[in-house]
Every structure is written in structure tokens, then in C-alpha cells.
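Regression test attached.
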Amino acid sequence: MPNIDDVLGDIDLNFENTVAKLLELIAIPSISSEPSGEADIARAADWLKHELDAIDLPAEIVATKGHPVVLARSMATSNAEHPRLLFYGHYDVQPVGDPAQWTHAPFEPRVIEEDGVHRFYGRGSSDSKSQLWTFIEALRAWRAVHGEFPAHVTVLLEGEEECGSPSLPDFIESRRSDLECDVAFICDAEMWSPSQPAITTQLKGLVHERVTIFAPNPDLHSGHYGAVAANPIRILSTILAGLHDEKGKVTIEGFYEGIDDIPQSVREQWAELAKERSLIGDVDLTGGVAEEGYSSLEAMWGRPTVDINGITGGNQGPGERSVLPGSATSRLSFRLVAGQKPETIRQRFRSHVEARLPQGCKVEFEGSGGSSAVVLSQDSRFLKASSRGLEGEWGTPAVLRGTGGAIPLVEQFSRNLRAECVVIGFILPGDAIHAPDERYDTKRLRKGVRSWVRIFEQIRRTQGADCGG
Amino acid sequence: MPNIDDVLGDIDLNFENTVAKLLELIAIPSISSEPSGEADIARAADWLKHELDAIDLPAEIVATKGHPVVLARSMATSNAEHPRLLFYGHYDVQPVGDPAQWTHAPFEPRVIEEDGVHRFYGRGSSDSKSQLWTFIEALRAWRAVHGEFPAHVTVLLEGEEECGSPSLPDFIESRRSDLECDVAFICDAEMWSPSQPAITTQLKGLVHERVTIFAPNPDLHSGHYGAVAANPIRILSTILAGLHDEKGKVTIEGFYEGIDDIPQSVREQWAELAKERSLIGDVDLTGGVAEEGYSSLEAMWGRPTVDINGITGGNQGPGERSVLPGSATSRLSFRLVAGQKPETIRQRFRSHVEARLPQGCKVEFEGSGGSSAVVLSQDSRFLKASSRGLEGEWGTPAVLRGTGGAIPLVEQFSRNLRAECVVIGFILPGDAIHAPDERYDTKRLRKGVRSWVRIFEQIRRTQGADCGG
């Protein structure tokens, strides 16, 4: 029987091809939240189906109300007692933003050596095309060497993660029996540091919301009416400026209702983590206002927030225009912790704005859905096997961490399918996800693939023990 | 000798052609503040030179550092004692803004009957192509009937009014002797109501300024860093929200320094005006915050203001993007009254922002120049002749009014050339200047042209009186 080194050897042998394939995928601009991305989303789904079919994971492209899900399932393995593993990744990417801010073209990835690191740039290179590629490549290699997969395998690749997974609940409901599993591995998360792996056990929920303030008049000449007529930018600025008090607390009534403070044991665990490394990589926190009474890490992982993601109003052109605009818009997102319901937070925000709207002005809100926060058990055998597998590859224990990020699927799976979830990933703060010049590197890609192989091996051993083998 | 009715008759006879020509001019997108407007600015200048040449006002296109000035001067008249009249208008227009907000295409004007009014829509239709067309057409008709102009005539058509007239001071300095005149008629102002003409005797100054706040980091993932890192939109919003106190006063230190309060006599004069009609036409002031202690009219005409004309930051795309942006920008304009210097106000604003900038953040400002406020004498014989001429056409006395608008040339002329200025115009609040669906109508165009003829006649009579004729 082949051993793990044979599989790791196969990965190294095929690595050039692994990278080349991944760059093909990154080159597809599969932006899920812009209508122009639709054809490329379909192209990315086709590409993935082709790759999964080729490694004996027959895939189907499942249409949804939004973008399709790529769903692949293995044939039966030699051992019916094998556990059922589900792997989740998403193939859609964030919009590019202002292309002028990118040094590297967002959809023309190639490997560049920079200070000894073999890096590639591109939207989706770290979030999350490299991530899903780690487990697909690990499954390929395992099967190539062993002749079968390490378990019953389901692969679920979503095309709407970056726009809040609106079709996911219906998809899960309609394919419930196909998705049943002993553990869902969610590969869309961060490492702890470039040298230390992590398993994420606490995720925030997410609500997106747009708010547009309308003055009683359409655009006016600001010289004539600026002194007396309502200015929606001024009104919107005042509302946004008032969302936090001087202690960094959110002023929306009832915003913190129903949540428990971070338990002392967790605070202590996180304080230990915060000692070990700079939590935030190269990010400069000067000028930021964390909620008073909480460390940076506690604020990021354990406290709910409201963030202003965009604002637009009045003159956007290259020249000056003395205009008092008719409207102004802001996009916001709320990051929720356990105890907060997305719809309640949305309604409380809307009431907050309405209560501050000057007479005669109107407000329009846009936004729906959202996800709740999740706190996962640290006790499961799959989490423990994963932890051992990661430690085997990286030579240092995996940190059990929180995140400010949200993965709507984790909530769906743990709540609706009651499946155990293990959230693992290989990205880092310096990868510029959601930002210009998003990047990844080949070293982490290789070690990411190898990590999964070691996790499979640990699960096999556990399984072997269960069977008395 | 022909009398005034002959000239008015000629205007009516030629009116169809007058309108057709004007629509040709409005169809040229001569946007001065956007680089893409350059070719059309040149086209509009050529068009005007051609028209002026054709009515025996030989014109030259004078290059400047920015957009050209069209300058035309009449040959000597039969009477060397005739006064020297200068007419000012501007042929450049504001940017269109969001084209989706226009019901009518901004550069495809045609006359439409709406509730008995013959209206035409287009950027520049009221500000200020119809305006300059009133005096050109009046000069044409007078000369056609009389065989010569009513006076020594200079026509100055500027191409940079909508971007703050940056080249005007140099132009005036270099052509000082060509511009000498007894009176400069500035035709870029409002009537008092659809039935009552006005002469504007008090104008505000104007300063444009852009401010960009930079966080210490480029774009970040807002889920990961929103709780702790600086958000430039939040910082900018807070600064903008704090520019006014709860009484509507500008909080910039020294903003009101050096200005006198509105004299009691002027307040009484304006209070009388405010009684006569709704000052602000169809504009709804609900939700606006005028400076406490001042009527709407006093705030608009007699008090300095700061207006937010635009704001941009973070996600501008159609989809959601969980981004903590690296920067956010706002465009502002300051409307000054007598006693305020543009450069001082600019510097005070910059100091105000810098004092409120969180540690680690940076700010960049963009903006230069600007104009001071002007208060014109109400005593001149040309103003009185104009007043009689306007009353003759409209059947009701001309109101002596102020404005929140700025015409940089008035300051330049009254200060540098020490020329008397008379500011007359035929636009109305409902014309949507600087806004979508800017409009004008043929009735006002015809009465505007006729008004000038009556003003010429009044000046001729004065002149006649001076000469004992």
C-alpha cells in the first residue's frame, strides 16, 4: 500500500502543472456582483467541472436563481465505512475597484519572483481560487497514488460568496440529501502567520445595506441655494459621522442587544495569541478607533461593527460643478456576533437613519438577507485530525482563531444541515484580498495542498482506529 | 431716422432664425472643466466669431493659458462722443453630471410646447448661451435698422466661466486698452420673477477646493480591519458634518473675520423684496439649515457659505464590495461676501481639516485662485438707463437684487479696469442651471433681446441729453 510520502511526491512532481492550471482559473474574471461578470462566472464553472470530471469527481453545474453551484461527488470507495467529507470553496471574486490602483493587471496572472518569493497577482488569486485549488489538487494526488479517494467526497464550489450567497439556502434545501456529510471542510480562511497554520472556529455574520438620502429638490445651483436648501451629502455625512460615539461604540439603538460579552476564557486565549505575533501583519492601525475596552483582536473577532464601504454624491466628474445634489448614497456593512439577527440589525439601522432624516427629505434603503455569526465546537474529531495534519506539514501547532470575515455557508451548514464544519485556509493579511494587487505565492500553494494530504492521512488513521484496524 | 419700433419689428421678423441659431450653439457641448470638452470649446468659439463677423463686429479668437476668449469690436460710429459699451457673456457650460438624470438629451435642443410655453432643453440653454445671444441679437437688429451700432461696442465672450475664470486676469491685463469702456454689461444673471426684471448689484465671491483623506493603508478587507483600522470615509464624513454648528454657522476658525454684518437698510430693502414673491421659485427649502438669525434671502445674498458639491469614496461599482477604502474625496465651494479673501478662506479651511486629521492619516488639497465678492454702485447713469429700459419692456420696475452666484469677471472689471459694471440677465430659478434638464423658453429670449434694444434707446437718449440733442 502506498504511503503518504508517495502522495506528497506526486504533488511535487506535478506542481508546475498545478500552478499553470490555477493561473488559468484566476485569469477568468468571475466577478459575481456585477452583471458584466455573468459570462465569466459560467466560464469558470465550466472550467471547474472539466477539472473535477478529469479526476473522477463527476461534476454537475447546478443552476440557481443567481450564479451556478458546481457540485461533484465521488463514486463509492473500497470501504463503505469511510467518512463522508464535503469540501467547500467559492470560485467567484470581488469586483476589481479602480483598475488604476492595480500595479499588476487583475486578470493576467503569472509567477514573478520577488525577494525570493514566487508570487502571482490577480483578483481571486488568494480569495479564493488558490484555496479551492489546494483541496482539489490534494484529492487528485491522493487518488492518483492510492487509486481511490480517502473517503466519500463531495465538492461544492459556490459562485455567489462575494455577494452574500443569496441562492445558497435554496440550493442547500433542494439538495439536502446530496450534501449530507460527516464533516464539511470550508476552505476560505486565513493562516495565523506565514509559518503557522490556523483553524477558524468563530466567524462573524454579515449584512450589506445601501442608503440613499434624497433632498426635496433635484440638483440645484449651490451658489444660489447652498445657504438655504437641504444638502443630501451634508445630511448623509452627519448620519455616518454619528454612527459611532467617541468611545467607538455603535450608536444604533439596540445594536448590542442580545449579545454576550466575550467570555473571560476566550479573552485570555486571544490575549495569548496577540502576544505571539503582530495580529495584523503589515496593516497600520494608526488613526483607527477600536471600541473602547477591547483589544484590537477582541474588536476584530468578538465585537459587532458597522463599516462604511462606499459613498457617492454630487459632482463625480473631472471638473468643478457648483451643484447642490439631489441625492447621496452610502454602502455599509454590518459584521455581527452571536446573538444578533441580520434582519433585526438591518431594521434598527433603518430606524436610526429615519429618525435623523430632516423634514422634507426622503430615504431609500436597499439590501436583504445576510448571515449570522457562528461559533464552532473545538472538540470534534475532524478538527483534531485537521489540527494534527496541519502541524505535521507546518511543524508548529495550528492556532484556533476567530475572524472578522463571514462565510455564509458555515452558518447554513451548521444550522440547517447540522453538519460539523472545519474552517481551514492558507491566506494571509498581506494578500490584499478585496483590494488592488491581490496576490498569492507558490510556496503556500504547495504547502496548502500538502496540508490536505496530511489531514486525509490523519482522518484515515482515526477511521482505522474506529474500525480496529 | 428709424425709431425703436422699427428695431423691435426687425427682431420679431427674424425671430425664427434667432431661435434656430441659438439651438445650433447649444448643441455644441462646450464643457470647460472637462478635458474632453476642449474641441467643442474651440468649435463654439469659431461659431461665435463667425456670427459676430457677420454682423460687422470683427472678432478674434484670443488664446489664453486655458480656453480662448472671443473678442469683437465695432468700427467707429458716426458720433465719436458715443459711449463705449462692453458686453460680457460666457459660452462655456457646466458638465452634464449623470446623463441618466436628464429626460431630454443635454445637447440636442429643439423647441417643445409645454402648457403653452415654447421651451428648449439643453446644458447651457439658460447658463449662459441664451443670455449672450440676447445682446448679440439686439446689436444685430439695431445695426440692421440704424445702419450702425448705438455706441462703440466691445463683445467679450469667455470660455472658462464655469471653471472659475482662471485665465481672465492675465487676459484683462494683456488687453487692457482694448477693454476700456464706460460701462460693462454683464449678462449672466437672474430676473426677479417670470414677469419682473432685475439688475444684480451684489455678487458673492467663489473658491473651489478638493480635499482627499488618505488612511495609512491602501484598500483593506472591511470585515477583517473595519473594527480597528482608520476609515477615510468615516473621517471625511466627520469633518464635513462638523463644518457647521447647530445654528448653521460655519465652524472654520476666522471664517467670518473681516466681514461686516448686512446693513440694516439693506436688510429692510431685502425684507420688502421677500414679501413680494416666493424668493426661491419652485425650490423646496424644507430640511435646509439657513444660518440662524438671517432670513433665507439674507443667507443667500449676504452671508458667506461653504457647500459640499461632491463626495466619492470606496466602492462605486454595481455590486457589494466589503472594502475599507484607502482614501475618500470631497469637493467643496465657498461663497464669499465683501471682506473675505479667497486665499485666506482656502488656508483657513485647510488648517481646519489638518487640525481634525487623525494621527497616521494624510490629507491632500487641490484648488487655487477664486474670486472676491462685489457690491456695485446703484447710482450710475447706465444702471438707471438700464432700469428704465427694462421697465419699458416688462412693464414693471427692475428689482435691484443680490445673488449667491459669482461672476469672477465683475470683480476683475470693477477692481482692475475700474469700469462700471451693470449685471443684467433673464434666467429664473426654474431653469435648472447646473442641473439636469436645464431649460429656457422663447418668450424670455424674445423679451430679453427686446430689453437690450430698449436699454440702448435709453442710453442714446441720455447721450443725446448730454450732447444737448
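Expected vs. actual: identical. Chain B is about 35% helix and 20% strand.
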